[in-house]
Design a protein that fits this description.
This protein is of the alpha/beta class and 331 residues long. The protein has helices at residues 2-12, 27-41, 47-50, 61-68, 90-95, 97-101, 123-131, 145-155, 162-172, 176-189, 198-205, 213-222, 225-237, 244-263, 268-271, 278-287, 290-307, 317-328; strands at residues 19-24, 51-55, 78-83, 107-114, 133-137, 159-160, 195-196. 57% of the residues lie in helices and 10% in strands. Strand 2 (51-55), helix 4 (61-68) and strand 3 form a beta-alpha-beta unit.
Length: 331
């Protein structure tokens, strides 16, 4: 994520490279970088002459190189984009290597290679790394998700409360594209200067501020069985908005944070916990010992396997969550 923002900063300052390789398993970062580049380089008056877009499945390297070696006619740069580069024949990519070793400085060649990491051993990778910019992306860790939401909100000029951030993370999960869309929706809805609160999340995104994954883990951590039971009944009636895999993932990450808090560090930044909630996590960690927390994580993993039909007959959402809840309250 640090590399992503560093590259965006360079582009915003008009510090362009003749070569860009945008590769990895988190497509949001690739799409966002390409969008910023296009905002800087694209011009309606010159696009017909100085912008060429190719797609990996239906193009040959020679076509790309013919355009890349061309000089701009109306713009400062001749922009050439290769999308879905992961679909192009490996040989075709190798052909681009000789160009990348000595690129045309008046051309900006952007290669978007999605869904996997470009092979670092390839000569093309080394050439672009030497003469241009490489961005390798991967899904962000769960403990970085809240800080990403806060950072993206700042970029969109939105102020969002810690609880609203937690709710958004718990509801949407780590799909950055979906999170970005929800934040943009809030940007349109919320009055300038207002802070996005849990009420906004409940009203405009559709998650209940009282019955959600975040409140479930809070009830379990505090030992409030009655509240936890009420929440799982609500989640069971709203499975489309609260998929079991996401609920279990959030619970597992909650106990993982408790384990780290108990035995490794109390630094909220390392744990991925907003300082606003650290006392709540500390109270839960104090209530449970290391063995209980580890056992809870085992029970959640077992529930996840059962929900997928592994080592058991098919079980319902309700059965899975009720059985898990009983285990978590009898650790």
């Amino acid at each position: 994520m640090k590399e992503f923002f560093s590259l965006l900063s360079k582009i915003q300052r008009n510090q362009f490279s003749p070569l860009y390789l945008l590769s990895g398993t988190e497509s949001f970062f690739i799409d966002a970088t390409l969008k910023v580049l296009m905002e800087k380089l694209s011009n309606d008056k010159s696009n017909d002459f100085d912008l060429s877009v190719f797609y990996g499945k239906e193009t040959k390297a020679i076509q790309i190189l013919e355009c890349a070696k061309r000089y701009p006619m109306l713009s400062k740069y001749n922009t050439v984009i290769l999308k879905d580069a992961q679909l192009i024949n490996t040989y075709e990519l190798d052909v681009i290597t000789s160009y990348a070793q000595k690129p045309n400085l008046q051309t900006i060649l952007i290669i978007c290679y999605k869904n996997k990491i470009f092979d670092k051993r390839k000569k093309l990778f080394k050439a672009i790394e030497k003469n241009g910019d490489v961005l390798l992306t991967k899904p962000i860790y769960e403990n970085k998700l809240n800080s990403w939401i806060q950072r993206q909100a700042e970029i969109l000029d939105i102020e969002i409360s810690p609880l609203a951030t937690e709710l958004l993370a718990a509801y949407v999960g780590s799909n950055l594209e979906n999170l970005d869309q929800e934040l943009k929706k809030l940007k349109i809805i919320v009055t300038d200067g207002d802070v996005v609160t849990e009420e906004h999340i409940e009203k405009h995104i559709g998650i209940s501020k009282e019955y959600n994954s975040f409140e479930l883990q809070k009830a379990i951590g505090s030992g409030n069985f009655s509240k936890a039971f009420q929440i799982i009944q609500f989640l069971n009636r709203n499975t489309k908005d609260h998929p079991l895999v996401l609920v279990l993932s959030n619970l597992y990450n909650y106990f993982k944070k408790l384990l780290l808090l108990k035995g490794v560090t109390s630094d909220p930044k390392i744990l991925g916990i907003n300082p606003f909630f650290i006392s709540e996590y500390s109270a839960a960690a104090k209530r449970l010992n290391m063995r209980q927390i580890s056992l809870a994580m085992d029970h959640i993993m077992e529930a996840d396997l059962k929900s997928k039909g592994i080592n058991t007959n098919n079980v319902t959402y309700k059965q899975t969550m009720e059985e898990l809840l009983l285990k978590l309250f009898t650790l």
